[in-house]
Amino acid sequence: MQKREDNGEAIAKSMFEMAKLEVPIIAIVIGEASSGGALAIGVGNEVIMLENAIYSILSPEGYSSILWKDSSRFKEAAEKMKLTAKDLYELKVIDKIIKEPLGDETESFNEVVKSLTKEIKLSISKMIKKSKEEIVQERYNKFRNMGEYINM
């Protein structure tokens, strides 16, 4: 009988294997990236996030349910979790924020697509010049340093 992996172990193994890939990884958060699987996004060489997207391993409702046994405190939990693009950029979890213009939905969508296309091309043009070893090492260093926190 084969031993069943728990989700945490499966996610950790996937991240470990992703970290060893010798090709660049560009991850893009366009909406809500949550659950344990969202951890894998952090292994990217470049992590790009839309301005109004959120990225966290747990929903604010889940966080407040665990921490305070009260899911109605989700707004307070969301603030503590630092799941906005601005917060995550400051913590060095993501590398770039794509602005989302207000206005006509179609026009706004087209602007976001143009910005994303530009950033993807820029990321590829930088990474294509690097060796496989540099790609892997830079990804490792980035992951090890993300979320660096200094208590003052």
Q: Short description, anyone?
A:
The protein has six helices and five strands; from the N terminus they run αββββαααβαα. It has helices at 7-19, 60-68, 74-81, 85-90, 105-127, 132-145, and strands spanning 26-29, 32-33, 46-50, 54-55, 96-98. α2 packs across α3 (74-81).
Description:
With 152 residues, this protein is mainly alpha-helical. The chain has a single domain (25-145), classed as 2-enoyl-CoA Hydratase, Chain A, domain 1 (Alpha-Beta Complex). It has helices at residues 7-19, 60-68, 74-81, 85-90, 105-127, 132-145, and strands at residues 26-29, 32-33, 46-50, 54-55, 96-98. It has a three-stranded parallel sheet. The longest helix has 23 residues, at 105-127. The chain starts with 6 loop residues before the first helix and ends in a 7-residue tail after the last helix. The model has no long low-confidence stretch (mean pLDDT 87).
Could you say how many structural domains there are in total? 1
The average pLDDT score comes to 87
Q: For the CA atoms, what is the radius of gyration?
A: 17 Å
Percentage of helical residues? 40-55%
